[in-house]
Amino acid sequence: MTSRVPVLLSTSSVFPERTAAAFQLAAALGYDGIEVMVWTDAVSQDAGALRGLADHYGVPVLSVHAPCLLVTQRVWSPDPWERLRRAAELADTLEAPTVVVHPPFTWQRDYARTFAAGLDEVAGRFTGLRFAVENMYPVRMAGRQFVPYAPGWDPTETGYPSYTLDLSHCAASHTDALAMADRMGPALAHVHLGDGTGEGRDEHLVPGRGGQPCGELLRSLAGRGFTGSVAVEVTTRGAKSRAVREADLRESLEFARANLTAPSPVDA
């Protein structure tokens, strides 16, 4: 690996291309590993297929994103606990140390009521994994704002053993990303690297193209004692060609590496 903190490519970053394309691009560009977004692509759900891709391209799976999106509510099972358990099994089989988890949706009442205790129970069965709960954001529709997560979009208000900090989500929620990292403290286990303008929607821009302190956050990780990984999670669905998508992912990797290896103000 070319930096102390591994830089991963999320398979969501190549959408609408499929999971296998992420491994191909990660290998070509020199990423340290892959974050698998488990979704409707059957390959993303299949440990054997993923291991085959990892071996073929020489790019390990180092993080698994549990199927928590609206479009993945029926992946594996309609039961959110079963989906989380299956994601944990997938990560355990692939020796990926991190499972990214979203807070429950408000309509998942039973799941939300027992989420903290249930997460502890699953973590107790998979002791080698970190279940990193991700910060989300309020949703704005028709001029109104509502929070579709329970008990809320900010997991630090509840408190969990591990967190994922998503910079694009910080932009969408008008949250100070550095202050959120401070609140997460040593429980910060994973970073989703993507930028945003703060215009109230989740943009996942290439880092440096929005207004988030992406570089400052990355430069601060060493001083925070960070031992996790950084996953590039950017939207390239508007790319007019594979070459444009590849250029965006190369730029994102170079941004991450440059800032992860740069000294923080404390170190300088």
From TrEMBL:
<dbReference type="InterPro" id="IPR013022">
    <property type="entry name" value="Xyl_isomerase-like_TIM-brl"/>
</dbReference>
<dbReference type="Pfam" id="PF01261">
    <property type="entry name" value="AP_endonuc_2"/>
</dbReference>
<dbReference type="InterPro" id="IPR050312">
    <property type="entry name" value="IolE/XylAMocC-like"/>
</dbReference>
<feature type="domain" description="Xylose isomerase-like TIM barrel">
    <location>
        <begin position="23"/>
        <end position="257"/>
    </location>
</feature>
<dbReference type="GO" id="GO:0016853">
    <property type="term" value="F:isomerase activity"/>
</dbReference>
<keyword id="KW-0413">Isomerase</keyword>
<dbReference type="InterPro" id="IPR036237">
    <property type="entry name" value="Xyl_isomerase-like_sf"/>
</dbReference>
<protein>
    <submittedName>
        <fullName>Sugar phosphate isomerase/epimerase</fullName>
    </submittedName>
</protein>
